[in-house]
Design goal:
Layout lengths: L6 E6 H11 L12 H17 L3 E5 L8 H4 L12 H4 L1 H11 L3 E3 L6 H14 L3 E6 L12 E7 L4 E5 L1 H8 L6 H8 L14 H11 L2 H6 L6 H8 L2 H11 L21 H11 L2 H6 L20 E4 L7 H7 L3 E9 L7 E9 L2 E6 L9 H7 L5 E4 L2 H10 L7 E4 H8 L8 H7 L8 H5 L11 H27 L3 H21 L1 E3 L1 H26 L8 H11 L7 E2 L2 E2 L3 H7 L4 H26 L7 E2 L2 E3 L9 E3 L11 H5 L4 E2 L6 E7 L2 H10 L2 H8 L4 H10 L8 H16 L3 H8 L3 H14 L1 H17 L1 E3 L5 E3 L8 H37 L5 E6 L2 E6 L4 H13 L10 E6 L7
Parallel strand pairs: 1-2, 1-4, 2-3, 4-5, 7-10, 11-12
Antiparallel strand pairs: 5-6, 8-9, 9-10, 13-16, 13-19, 14-15, 17-18, 20-24, 20-25, 21-22, 23-24
Helix pairs in contact: 1-2, 8-9, 8-12, 17-22, 18-21, 22-35, 23-26, 25-26, 28-29, 28-34, 28-35, 30-31, 30-33, 31-32, 32-33, 33-34, 34-35, 35-36
Protein name: DNA polymerase I
GO molecular function, one term: 3'-5' exonuclease activity
Subunit structure: Single-chain monomer with multiple functions.
């Protein structure tokens, strides 16, 4: 952006951000931060920088609510509404962004931004410099002179009107210095400046054109007539005071000069980082900052040249590829389809030194691909890639094994920031200031990727991706090392990806006949419940229609209306649960919905996922890079959310059986792992005692909170204790506990306070971790997994409260996730070391599921809990409960 010569630009920060906030529709980034005011300010800034090309810039802000003007008139600006919190929280964000532009900013207690601007503009004028003032406040027009031009924002913030002295005269028929007289007479409601009642702008201008100033108007009161004379005569002091309040003070004791605010342009890397954090992608494109980022060093600037070679039986290139494989270090697999178990590979790229070899996936079946297949399965060959877990499954589908010392940039980036808004390869490149690559959509078209031959366009696309991975690898490795997460990556997450691929390829057998029988049973129950509902309602209706259901419940049966939405009565689960005590029909509707969900999502849904080509198995896909806490996510299908609170839901597990005759299913479940982690992290003596003495933790909690011996703890006491115990883990609130226990918020709040008064170590932990998060901006698990909390200092109460609860529960939940991942890696090692046939099939929250041959029952009953309980040493023992059965239902 070009710079001018000796032109000072002064920006009224408060005025512009206020105008931007109310002019730009609400806008938030992925972390929930309001950014509309910052966005509007930035668009205005870019516009005036480009048009005015200043050599010096300063953004002035008000330093507080009280200024020297309040000393003479306490009601100054007294009518203004309180700044919305959604705007207040954007001030520090804006100030950070201004620093990223390398632009000076200034504020001084006791003075307004106007006064700072007035003083600096005077100093610049005296030095013969040209000055441009940017504001949305007409008061600043008083500064216009031969050297000072005022830009007033109009119609939001991006359109401005220029005011030199002649423009002020054309608009108002006044000189710039008479603007303060204009305000003296007409006042200014926005600043609570009274002026003279009954005198508007038109009358004030007419008076000033005749008499020149407020003082002269007051001297000529006898020459005025009627009501106007009376109003001015009764408000002489107000007129003088109003002029004084409107006068910009131009002698502020500044500690800087015009030369101190010189601007030589922004640093592209710093600005790119700031705009990327705010997710202002359009502004980054406008400034062409996609290849800039702080921290990327010279790598982003370096032009890495490579040759793209298409390999194929027709294209040739096999000999060159074979000769280069000893130096190959990067791999890209392109596949059609989201589910890797059903994805068809379409392309492959291998990068070695300055060459990238690209071939169509079917070419891997060529006799000439032998050396490449050897390299792919070589356990000693280093291979970097993006989402190598998926790549391994896609290759396996084609009968090709992927092994080696792998580095997955997607997995590494997830560890570095699990809340990253755009974890795609393009997003990672932008985040780290590296040259971007074309989107898949621009190459393959919308929707599903097309199977294409290795055209030059495809080859260039795959080569660019491989080059991008190669560039990202050293950057991410350095970041992992700097943040002490290298061990977490290399000893946990990367080995786990291999373990997961093995489990996914193995799959778990699911009997379609069992599901179909359950489906028939569910359907019969659904029809029976529908009949009961119609009988209670006195008519048949569409139970699945919220509108018809609302009419039955509220219009016909007269149940109390809990909540309404845009389309009428709300009949969501929360509303129905509150209505359950009022009428039998509500209980029936809730049960109907539960069974209908089981029938459609789990019976019909699972039947579709059974693959006959693998012996009637279901193959789920585990995602390591989804949950911010480190938990695994299951897809295609999701086997982690089969509802087991309902007996009908638990019945679905009967369909999951061993794949070999005479084998059994083994289920191993961590017992209260999160509460054990809490006992360790908090160091609370009472919690630790309960686990060390192998007491029932909920009974122990009830004893301590209610102050009764074990014999007097009844079911309700234990239920309450259990609710607050798990509430602590997930971020307790009086509202949440009141809903769980069906008590008032006051009662729930008192219960929580009583809990904390007993478990003081837990309270201390909660307070300490929040303070630590505010200081660091993130929290960590025991193994060093981070979660960033950008809203931990937010002025918005809801955002801040959520971040505080997240700070409390992430170290607990995240450590529990780390522990079961460790157990899986070590369990896989133990099975291989002992050459056991038993197979690990599933991970479902805190549970591991195995299939075990009869001769290994006794071994696995001892080995599995031993490995799980020794995964990580805590101050309290970990405990894993193990059970066997002929199916998953029986093994629970």
């Amino acid at each position: 952006m070009a710079k001018g010569t000796d032109k000072l630009m002064l920006i009224d920060g408060n005025s512009i951000i206020y105008r931007a906030f109310f002019a730009i529709p609400p806008l938030t980034n992925s972390s929930g931060l309001q950014t509309n005011a910052v966005y509007g300010f930035t668009t205005m800034l870019l516009k005036v920088l480009e048009e005015e090309k200043p050599s010096h810039i300063l953004v002035a802000f008000d330093a507080g609510k009280t200024t020297f003007r309040h000393e003479g008139y306490a009601e100054y600006k007294g009518g203004r509404e309180k700044t919305p919190p959604e705007l207040s929280q954007q001030f520090p964000v804006l100030k950070d962004l201004i620093r990223s532009f390398s632009i000076s900013q200034y504020e001084l207690p006791g003075y307004e931004a106007d006064d700072i601007i007035g003083t600096l503009s005077r100093l610049a004028e005296e030095e013969g410099r040209e000055v441009v003032v940017v504001s949305g406040d007409k008061d600043l027009l008083q500064l216009a002179s031969d050297k000072v031009t005022v830009l007033l924002t109009r119609k939001g913030v991006t359109e401005v009107e220029k005011y030199a002295p002649e423009d002020v005269n054309a608009r108002y028929g006044l000189k710039p210095e008479q603007i303060i007289d204009l305000k003296g007479l007409m006042g200014d409601p926005s600043d609570n400046i009274p002026g003279v009642p009954g005198v508007g702008e038109k009358t004030a201008v007419k008076l000033l054109q005749e008499f020149g100033s407020v003082e002269n108007v007051l001297d000529n009161i006898p020459n005025l007539k009627g009501k106007l004379r009376e109003n001015i005569e009764n408000n002489v002091d107000n007129a003088r005071m109003s002029k004084q309040l409107a006068t910009i003070f131009r002698e502020v004791p500044l500690d800087r000069t015009v030369d101190d605010v010189a601007w030589s342009g922004y640093d592209a890397a710093s600005l790119a980082t700031a705009l990327r954090k705010l997710e202002f992608k359009s502004l980054m494109e406008r400034l062409d900052l996609s290849g800039a980022d702080a921290g990327s060093g010279e790598l982003a600037k370096a032009e890495i040249e490579y040759e793209t070679i298409i390999v194929g039986d027709d294209a040739g290139g096999w000999e060159q590829l074979d000769a280069s494989l000893p130096d190959a270090d990067t791999l890209i697999i392109e596949a059609a389809g989201d589910n890797p178990h059903a994805s068809e590979g379409i392309g492959l790229a291998v990068m070695a030194d300055s060459r990238c070899f690209v071939l169509a996936f079917p070419q891997l079946k060529s006799e000439k691909a032998e050396a490449l297949l050897t390299w792919l399965s070589d356990p000693e060959a280093a291979k970097a890639g993006y989402d190598l877990h998926r790549a391994e499954l896609v290759l396996a589908r084609a009968g090709i094994k992927l092994c080696g010392q792998t580095f997955d940039v997607q997995l590494a980036a997830y560890l570095l920031d699990p809340t990253e808004a755009d974890p795609s390869l393009t997003g990672l490149l932008q985040r780290h200031g590296l040259p971007s690559v074309a989107s898949d959509e621009s190459v393959y078209g919308k929707g599903a990727k097309f199977r294409v031959p290795p055209t030059e366009e495809l080859a260039a696309h795959l080569a660019a991706k491989a080059d991008a991975v190669r560039r990202l690898k050293p950057v991410l490795e350095d970041e992992l090392e700097r943040l002490n997460m290298s061990k977490l990556y290399h000893e946990l997450e990367q080995p786990l990806a291999v373990v997961l691929a093995g489990m996914e390829l193995q799959g778990i057998k699911c009997e379609s006949g069992t599901l179909q029988e359950l489906g028939k049973d569910f359907q019969a129950r659904i029809e029976g419940i529908m009949s009961d509902i119609y009988q209670q309602a006195g008519t048949e209706f569409n139970i699945g229609s919220p509108k018809q259901l609302g009419e039955i419940l509220f219009d016909k049966l007269g149940l109390p209306v809990i909540k309404k939405n845009k389309t009428g009565y709300s009949t969501d689960a929360e509303v129905l649960e509150k209505l359950e005590p009022y009428h039998e029909i509500v209980r029936l509707i809730l049960h109907y919905r539960q069974l209908a969900k089981l029938q459609s999502t789990y019976i019909e849904g699972l039947l579709k996922e059974i693959r006959q080509d693998t012996g009637g198995k279901i193959h789920t896909f585990y995602r390591q890079t989804i949950a911010a806490t480190g938990r695994l996510s299951s897809q295609y299908p999701n086997l982690q959310n089969i509802p087991i609170r309902l007996e009908e839901g638990r019945q679905i597990r009967k369909a999951f059986v061993p794949s070999e005759p005479g084998w059994r299913i083994l289920g191993a479940d961590y017992s209260q792992i999160e509460l054990r982690v809490l006992a360790h992290i908090s160091g609370d003596d009472r919690l630790k005692e309960a686990f060390l003495q192998e007491m029932d933790i909920h009974t122990k909690t009830a004893m301590d909170v209610f102050g009764v011996p074990k014999e007097q703890v009844d079911a309700n006491m234990r239920r309450s204790a259990k609710a607050v115990n798990f509430g602590i883990v997930y971020g307790i609130s009086d509202y949440g506990l009141s809903q769980n226990l069906n008590i008032t918020r006051k009662e729930a709040g008192a219960f929580i306070e009583q809990y904390f008064s007993v478990f003081q170590g837990v309270r201390k932990y909660m307070d300490t971790i929040v303070e630590q998060a505010k200081q660091d901006g993130y929290v960590t698990t025991l193994l060093g997994r981070r979660r960033y909390l950008p809203d931990i200092r937010a002025s918005n109460f809801n955002l801040r409260s959520f971040a505080e609860r997240t700070a409390m529960n992430t170290p607990i939940q995240g450590t529990a996730a780390d522990i079961i991942k460790l157990a899986m890696v070590r369990m896989d090692e133990a099975l291989r070391e002992r050459n056991l046939q038993s197979r690990m099939l599933l991970q479902v929250h805190d549970e591991l599921v195995f299939e075990v041959p009869e001769e290994e029952f006794e071994t696995m009953k001892v080995l599995v809990p031993q490995v799980m309980e020794s995964a990580l040493e805590l101050d309290v023992p970990l405990k894993a409960d193990v059970s066997f059965g002929s199916n998953w239902y029986e093994a629970k």
